[in-house]
Amino acid sequence: MKIQRLLGITMLLLSQRRVNAQTFADKFEVSLRTIYRDLETINTAGIPIVSFTGYDGGYEIMEQFRIDRQIVTFDDLQSILVALKGVQASLDDKEMDDLLTKIKALVVRSEQNQMEDSGETLIFDTNLWHGGRLKDKSMLVLLRQASKNRKVVSFLYTNSDGVGEQREVEPIGIAWKGYAWYLYAYCRLRNDYRTFRLSRVSGLRIHLEHFATKGVGMSELDARWGNQETGPSVPLLLHFRARLRVRVEEAFGLDNIEIQEDGSLVVRTSYPNNHWMYGMILSYGPDVRVLEPAFVAEKIRIQGEQIANNYN
Predict the structure, then answer these.
(1) Model pTM score
(2) DSSP code string of 228-289
């Protein structure tokens, strides 16, 4: 356990600029005294750790220190290659091609043979089934470059109601979330940060104008939006027919499901009160019934009748 903890501390110091002792103690669930001894052990082993005092104090590895490739195992390299290939499947970017080449160069000849003999055991692919993918892959490359070079971009954005609106934004970066690519950006029309689903973007233009960073990064925005819901949350009580058991368990989790005597399922959950929630419920067709709340059940009934009227 100590060796694993020492390696974990070293990796954390290599991946972050500065870490305080309490962070180490919380992560590895040991006392501060143990962390101080571990840091001294690492320092004695030849990895130069520097300490800093004050409000933003902590520990970091000297900037000139580099770690040898030997600490990265063959399995580690395989995992890195799988992830990179998956991203490259939908991101035609020369930089990504070059990175794949560099990673492959770290694999020695004997390991290459081993990789070929073992075959693929994991595929990570950001493309959808049946050829569904971003209409123009070059959009991803252009937006990545605009984000890195801090260039203003503009485009026509169509929302879920089919309404198009011209936007001018300061791009922060792109993210793959769930099953789609999104642009994180500061929208000059809304005077706030927004996410834009790339499949709804058209007429993309990269401007010569550069923008000054506002000090907000991708990680901060992702955490901010990850803790927010679009619209007030609505508690739902849903009844599903037994034949949908597998699908319902995958969608809602076993903890939220009550199996009835006849095999049907009752689900307690909550979602933001928006178009997506109603679309999700309707996607189960005649195999679901909204028990609560009444206003959601009524809206589903009305939408169902409107769908049926399309075929009269």
Answers:
(1) 0.56
(2) --SS-EEEEEEEE-GGGHHHHHHHH-GGGEEE-TTS-EEEEEEEESSHHHHHHHHTTGGGEE
